[in-house]
């Protein structure tokens, strides 16, 4: 039994025809956009997991630096 990775052009056309019959031509673009957004969010989350530790550390450093700068500047303004 061949794997799902070996669908081929004929199989894709058959799937598209079945989807067109089930959902109709007005719903297919909406479904495509929803699928694209979902895939994009999944890719972003995957990248975040792969390099998220470094990004979170950098964000914390930047936010701490911004907080300390605002504290020091507010301290000088009040004097």
Automatic annotation (TrEMBL):
Transmembrane segments: 6-23
Protein name: Sec-independent protein translocase protein TatA
Region feature (Disordered): 45-79
Compartments, record wording: Cell membrane
Gene: tatA
Subunit record text: Forms a complex with TatC.
Organism classification: Bacteria, Bacillati, Bacillota, Bacilli, Bacillales
The organism's place on the tree of life at top rank: Bacteria
Family statement drawn from the similarity comment of this UniProt entry: Belongs to the TatA/E family.
Feature: compositional bias, Low complexity: 65-79
Primary location: membrane
